[in-house]
């Protein structure tokens, strides 16, 4: 589709009305625009989308430090009809020679993260792009997102993802297209599974040795063998004991085949024996347990960080009279605030800074744009995205190395020799 250039209107500077709304509801006037070429500007995005209706605001999201495009942005319309028309007409339109990918911006992250209606397609012909995939699956229902995975050169990796707005449409697509030929290649179409779920399902059928704990002190090897023997032939069953022969209340059962071991875990985990609820699972080496615990810990930390990534704002230059409630009142017009706090010293005096966390990055982005530099009680606010201490230290360390490298060269400017210096990281 040819791009028609039009002069930007005053709406370019419009506020967040097109995407504002109470709570975490779905806003049908706000569009997410992905797969943007790094050179695409706000003005280009405005010019393209304003052809289909009155645009209230646009934004290409950028890295705060480098200013480089993150490859996506948002367009807000004044009414849902224009947003729907743009989604239908402009999706996969080339912008700076790269097709853009459009979908509604859902302010409720649970819609995206639930995985409901999300399917995985593999063994795709390399010629199938985002649009071809979208056209193939659109007959089964309303599509929220559609993407063919590509490498750094933009070439298809042979698999992709489609998320429908409901599980029924996804199931219909799976039933009709799984095993069918697309461009003379038989494709696999199935429910999308997260990495942890894929690894978990793969592990379930790959063990013979079962670990059981929370046993009664009176449980014997024979009783253990009798209970587990109902699921298949057992090569050994032992209750672990200390030097005095007292039960440690855990043991191991080894099956001849993996299917029997998996069925035993499925049936007995959580069951009560002698008023004791058993834990039954795959027996692991100490190194495996430590590795698994480490992965779980790292995953939980990552999920916690991702949850607030881009949604947590740092505010400073606050007047001493501003408390938690006043800070919340200042930022609440931009969305749902999950937490809000003014930092204070041990004596309760304001440090002049604080944090405001929103329910979505989009809300935080709007607040940042509107509130940074705004005069509040005769002082201009400084608002930016909050960073973890480790991230700040990493960025500062890069600055230290760059400064040291420059000054060690002994550059002469205006007759002054700059010697080696260091920046103290706070």
Automatic annotation (TrEMBL):
Residues 29-107, 117-189, 208-285, 311-388 form the RRM domain. Keywords: Repeat, RNA-binding. InterPro entries: Nucleotide-bd_a/b_plait_sf, PABP_1234, PABP_RRM1, RBD_domain_sf, RRM2_I_PABPs, RRM_dom, RRM_euk-type. SMART domains: RRM, RRM_1. Residues 1-20 are annotated as: Disordered. It holds the Pfam family RRM_1. The keyword Repeat applies. GO terms for molecular function: RNA binding. The keyword Ligase does not apply. PANTHER family: RNA BINDING PROTEIN. This is RRM domain-containing protein. It comes from Lupinus albus (White lupine). The lineage of its organism: Eukaryota, Viridiplantae, Streptophyta, Embryophyta, Tracheophyta.
């Amino acid at each position: 589709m040819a791009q028609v250039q039009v002069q930007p209107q005053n709406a370019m500077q419009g506020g967040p009305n097109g995407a504002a709304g109470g709570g975490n509801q779905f806003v049908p006037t706000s569009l997410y625009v992905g797969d943007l070429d790094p050179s695409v500007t706000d003005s280009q995005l405005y010019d393209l989308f304003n052809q289909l209706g009155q645009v209230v605001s646009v934004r290409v999201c950028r890295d705060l430090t480098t200013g480089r495009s993150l490859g996506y942005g948002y367009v807000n319309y004044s009414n849902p009809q224009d947003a729907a028309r743009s989604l239908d007409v402009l999706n996969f339109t080339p912008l700076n020679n790269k097709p853009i990918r459009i979908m509604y911006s859902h302010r409720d992250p649970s819609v995206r993260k639930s995985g409901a209606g999300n399917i995985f397609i593999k063994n795709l012909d390399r010629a199938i792009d985002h649009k071809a995939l979208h056209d193939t699956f659109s007959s089964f229902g309303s599509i929220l997102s559609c993407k063919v995975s590509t490498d750094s050169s933009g070439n298809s990796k042979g698999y992709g993802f489609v998320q429908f707005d409901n599980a029924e449409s996804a199931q219909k697509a799976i039933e009709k297209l799984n095993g069918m030929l697309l461009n003379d290649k038989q494709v696999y179409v199935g429910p999308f599974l997260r990495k942890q779920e894929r690894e978990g399902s793969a592990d379930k059928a790959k063990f013979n040795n079962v670990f059981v704990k929370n046993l009664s002190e009176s449980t014997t090897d024979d009783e253990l063998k009798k209970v587990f023997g109902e699921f298949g032939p057992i090569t050994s069953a032992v209750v672990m004991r200390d030097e005095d022969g007292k039960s440690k209340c855990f043991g191991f059962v080894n099956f001849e085949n993996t299917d029997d071991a998996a069925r035993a875990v499925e049936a007995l985990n959580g069951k009560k024996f002698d008023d004791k609820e058993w834990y039954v699972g795959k027996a692991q080496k100490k190194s495996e347990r430590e590795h698994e615990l480490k992965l779980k810990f790292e995953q939980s930390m990552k999920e916690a960080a991702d949850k607030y990534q881009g949604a947590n704002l740092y505010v400073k230059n606050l007047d001493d009279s501003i408390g938690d409630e006043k800070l919340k009142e200042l930022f609440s017009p931009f969305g749902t605030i999950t937490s809000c706090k003014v930092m204070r010293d041990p004596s309760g005096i304001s440090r002049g800074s604080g944090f405001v966390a929103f329910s979505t990055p989009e809300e935080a982005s709007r607040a940042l744009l509107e509130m940074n530099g705004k005069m509040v009680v005769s002082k201009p606010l400084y608002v930016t995205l909050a960073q973890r201490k480790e991230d700040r230290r990493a960025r500062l360390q890069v600055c230290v190395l760059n400064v040291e490298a420059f000054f060690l060269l002994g550059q002469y400017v205006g007759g002054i020799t700059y010697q080696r210096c260091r920046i103290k990281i706070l």
